[in-house]
UniProtKB/TrEMBL annotation:
Residues 554-677 form the Glycosyltransferase 2-like domain. Belongs to the glycosyltransferase 2 family. This is Glycosyltransferase. The chain crosses the membrane at residues 6-27, 463-483, 503-529, 843-864, 884-908. The keyword Protein transport does not apply. Keywords: Glycosyltransferase, Membrane, Transferase, Transmembrane, Transmembrane helix.
């Protein structure tokens, strides 16, 4: 036995030792309660709580609701605790920590000093607020001062606003406004200020506190906006000239317009009678005039309705006027008759088109009027609606209608008014039932199979073919070139032996490289989990629920044939713990009972719903709501795929961010809160955030809530549980720590709506790029990253280890195989589509490291693995698999793989107890077992998916689901 073999044995024993130690750590961690873990990781926090509040016993609930505990204390009792020597000692330490190099330590100090709330703590925080440069730390200081709630802090917090970034300013102003009426004396003295940050504070205070002073200030600001703008411009030019500010004068127009919009919206919403005077709706400024129209619509008078109708000739205000007139008609249907009279008296076709858009919200009413005594009025209006392109509801009505007289009259209108070859005609021919189309006298329209999309797919197939040939032929070609002089000289067996052994070494080197990469990522993941857990404990509920502290969210849940689980999922999503969100369920042309179950369970009715079409999608057939469930919106649309459904949801969404989630998934009540709370810790823009995805198979669910987490009884689901933990805990947490995260799971992702719209939404054949992809979750993140790099805008994509989404994973081989097919095809498609970024320094770490990593280890990897395993088997058959190679391959491909999986499991279970003790023991067993065949099978499937892509088979593949049942 040579020294090399001995060295390998020692290495194997060392790795086995580490695996054993990690397993013991996991087992030991299971015997610690969650309270012990949180207290252990936050000893000082527990000490402060026990001193400030004698009822604190180190429980998790107390950590989360600290503000409420402090507010319930008797003030004399609190003062007594604040005099304790131990608390004074901690106070001094935390005051010194405010100057720490570490941002996390400074945030920690803010939390403790906010809890202590003494005079010294307040003064130290106020001083730190004026000197702190990092906005994410600054907001922690602002929150701590708000918790202390001493009116003396208002002046300092107000001064600290000057010259700050919008991200901080928005949140800090919300904190100042928490002081309520105590703020007004300070603001009255600032009414003449020219600092734009203080003007914003004044206006936001006036928007929430209604009295004569604030009303007078709002009207004065709007009435004298030109004078105020000139004064601001002169002030900032002087400030810039004397180097007293970093404010850019180029921002002034945008900032001033936002302030004017805020003022006008407040006046329109709360002082609409005064704001509906002619001097406002006839004003030259677009913002003032626009909001004055809204003010007019809030007064239910005929003269106001006629004023709005008279302005329909103004193209610049088309959208606003259509929206306000529609709203007035909803509140008072008799205005519809006035609109009809104006429509038939109008000769201007542009104005008639705008009227037709208003009528389109009542399309079913006019369809039913075809059966009245005077159908010609309805026919004329319907014809104009159709020519105006408002046909989605018409399609939905005609496909479901069983009244053949109505059907015949509608077909007559189509024959008279619509050219079957026009864009509207093609749309109708594509989505109307075949029987109706034939009665119309034309044929159904199908998209041309030989389209640009398919031509691009052919190009991709050629690239994949070349890529595959390189993957399989690179080593043989290089080997034969290197040893060409030995061909015919040495024996065939010896030559083959050299070839096989050489490739075995390549497999070993590859395995070392990929597993070392995983272990490095896990080091970053471990640090990230510790930091995230600590920062999460610093955030109390009152902080997170403050206005504008975390973004408003539209949850978009695409659903296709989800009748088994849709009601449970929606109930779960309606019970989330989050301050400002809405739920948009998109029924993507389901042919089962999905829509009916939603309508019956939540008592939904079809409504006229106004929304902005920012992304092109297949037709929406209807929108359903229930007035008693204002958070819920259900969209019914023709089938267009998940990406198209998400785009439709984005069009309807009203919030700042949207959360894409699979309709067959469940979120824990605090998941959205945990995910969005990451935005507080980053002063950079966060255009995308991702959460943890866990298998729900075999878990117990009651009314949309998970009551017990258990490991699935299905063997395939158990292997996937290990795989998910490894992928999320090792990969995504690690990449996020290096600011290089490119994958956010489609099951649970959070995105800035405006950024997604600006890049063209999710890829579909109807969209900006005329292209589909099966990997839309990764592709949208790559495209956002690409855009942010191209506009040179600083950003960070985040991932929350403790924000959990539970989803069903495949339990049969065929479904799992189809899933892995499309995952690998999606990856290759994305790498090809964004090939410009590869090895391109312009795209920073994304172009230089991350995309090449995916190309080498994720795309090329399966081909190297499969060839390697074939060579191992061949070496065994030929009897040339010696001890050294066998040990090397065992260590690199098996032991390191086990080490990676066990490490990921330790990270996952360190801060949160997801599974029971016996389940964790089983997972340890499966973490070892998956390296003996399962991983290899998945690699084989990925190669098979690659070959399918070359053959043009790029569909999703069917995945069998049981559904989530309560």
């Amino acid at each position: 036995m040579s020294i090399h073999v001995n060295g390998l044995i020692v290495l194997m024993l060392v790795i086995l030792y580490f695996i054993t130690v990690l397993m013991m750590r996991i087992i030991g961690n299971k015997f610690s309660s969650l309270e012990e873990i949180y207290t252990r990781n936050n000893k000082r926090l527990a000490t402060v709580l026990s001193l400030v509040d004698h009822s604190f016993e180190g429980t998790f609930d107390s950590l989360r609701e600290i503000k409420e505990i402090k507010q319930n204390l008797i003030m004399e009792d609190l003062e007594q605790h604040l005099q304790s020597k131990e608390l004074i000692k901690i106070e001094k330490i935390e005051i010194r920590k405010l100057k720490s190099i570490s941002k996390t330590r400074r945030k920690e100090a803010c939390t403790y000093l906010g809890l202590i709330g003494s005079e010294n703590a307040r003064m130290a925080l106020e001083s730190a607020l004026m000197h702190e440069k990092d906005y994410s730390v600054k907001i922690y200081i602002s929150n701590a001062l708000t918790d202390i709630r001493n009116p003396k802090s208002i002046e300092v917090m107000t001064k600290a606003l000057i010259g700050t970034h919008k991200w901080y300013r928005t949140k800090a102003i919300s904190n100042i406004l928490e002081f309520g009426y105590l703020v007004q004396p300070y603001l009255l003295a600032l009414y003449e200020t020219n600092d734009i940050e203080l003007i914003e504070l004044n206006l936001k205070y006036a928007a929430e506190n209604f009295n004569e002073d604030t009303k007078r200030y709002l009207f004065r600001f709007v009435d004298d906006y030109e004078t105020k703008y000139k004064a601001l411009k002169a002030y900032y030019l002087e400030q810039i000239k004397s180097n007293k500010t970093k404010y850019r004068i180029s921002y002034l127009d945008e900032d001033f317009n936002k302030l004017l919009t805020l003022s006008c919206k407040t006046l329109s919403n709360y002082y609409f009678i005064d704001f509906s005077e002619a001097k406002y709706y006839e004003n030259d400024h677009v913002i003032i005039k626009n909001n004055a129209f809204w003010a007019l619509s809030k007064v239910n008078r005929t003269e106001h309705f006629k004023i709005l109708l008279a302005h329909l000739n103004e193209a610049d205000f088309e959208k606003t006027l259509i929206a306000v007139i529609t709203k007035m008609i909803e509140h008072n249907p008799r205005f519809l008759y006035i609109l009809e009279e104006s429509f038939f008296a109008e000769s201007n076709m542009d104005i008639k088109k705008r009227m037709a858009q208003i009528f389109s919200n009542k399309i079913e009413y006019y369809i039913l009027k075809l059966n009245s005594k005077h159908p010609h009025y309805a026919k004329e209006i319907l014809g104009e609606i159709i020519l105006n392109g408002k046909i989605n509801e018409l399609i939905g009505f005609m496909n479901l209608n069983r009244d053949f007289d109505l059907e015949n009259m509608l077909i007559e209108i189509l024959k008279e008014r619509v050219d079957p070859e026009s864009q509207i005609g093609l749309e109708l021919r594509r989505y109307l039932n075949r029987r109706i189309i034939e009665k119309w006298g034309t044929e159904p329209f199908e998209l041309n199979k030989i389209s640009e999309v398919h031509l691009k797919d052919k190009k991709l197939a050629k690239v994949v073919l070349m890529f595959t040939l390189i993957g399989f032929l690179a080593y043989p070609l290089l080997f034969f070139i290197k040893y060409s002089n030995e061909i015919g000289v040495v024996g065939t067996r010896l030559f083959l032996k050299k070839y096989v052994i050489g490739f075995n070494y390549i497999l070993a080197y590859y395995s070392v490289a990929i597993n070392i990469s995983y272990l490095i990522l896990m080091c970053f993941s471990y640090a990230n989990v510790r930091k995230q857990a600590k920062l999460w404990n610093f955030k109390n509920i009152s902080m997170l629920f403050r206005h504008k502290m975390i973004p408003s969210i539209s949850i978009i849940a695409p659903a296709f044939n989800e009748e088994k689980s849709i009601v449970s999922s929606v109930r779960s999503l309606l019970n989330l713990k989050y301050p400002d969100y809405e739920l948009i369920v998109v029924n993507d042309g389901s042919n089962d009972e999905t829509l009916r179950r939603l309508i019956e369970a939540f008592k939904l009715i079809r409504v006229d719903y106004q929304y902005q079409i920012s992304l092109d999608t297949v037709p929406i057939r209807g929108i359903y709501r229930n007035a008693s469930l204002p958070k819920l919106v259900v969209i019914d649309k023709n089938n267009g795929g998940k990406a198209d459904a998400l785009n439709a949801g984005i069009n309807v969404a009203n919030k700042e961010f949207f959360c894409g989630i699979d309709a067959d998934s469940l979120l824990e009540p605090e998941s959205l809160l945990r995910l969005a709370s990451l935005t507080i810790d980053e002063s950079k823009e966060t255009p995308a955030l991702g959460g943890n995805v866990c298998p729900i198979n075999s878990c117990k669910v009651d009314q949309g809530l998970i009551t017990e987490v258990v490991l699935s009884k299905n063997i395939l689901a158990r292997f996937q549980t290990i795989e998910y933990i490894r992928a999320f805990m090792a990969g995504r947490l690690g990449w996020q720590q290096m600011n290089s995260l490119l994958i956010i799971s489609g099951a649970f992702g959070l995105f800035r709506k405006d950024r997604v719209i600006s890049v063209g939404g999710y890829l579909t054949t109807r969209g900006k790029y005329k292209k589909d992809t099966v990997g839309e979750d990764m592709e949208i993140v790559v495209r956002i990253s690409r855009m942010m790099r191209e506009i040179n805008h600083s950003y960070k994509i985040l991932y929350a280890f403790n924000a959990n989404c539970w989803t069903e994973v495949p339990e049969d081989l065929k479904s799992l195989k189809n899933q892995r097919f499309r995952w690998h095809r999606g990856l290759i498609d994305i790498l090809y589509f964004h090939r410009k970024m590869m090895f391109n320094r312009r795209y920073g770490s994304t172009g230089i490291f991350v995309l090449p990593y995916y190309l080498i280890f994720e795309a090329f990897g399966p081909m190297i693995e499969m060839q390697g395993y074939v060579m191992v088997v061949l070496a065994a058959i030929l009897g040339i698999l010696d001890e050294k190679i066998a040990l090397l391959l065992f260590i690199t491909t098996i032991l390191l793989g086990v080490l990676v999986s066990i490490t990921a499991l330790l990270i996952a279970e360190r801060e949160e107890h997801y599974y029971r003790f016996m389940d964790v023991m089983k997972m340890l067993f499966y973490a070892i077992l998956e390296n003996f065949g399962v991983r290899q099978l998945v690699s084989f499937w990925r190669i098979e998916g690659q070959f399918n892509l070359m053959l043009g088979q790029s569909g999703w593949g069917k995945i069998k689901r049981k559904g989530i049942e309560s």
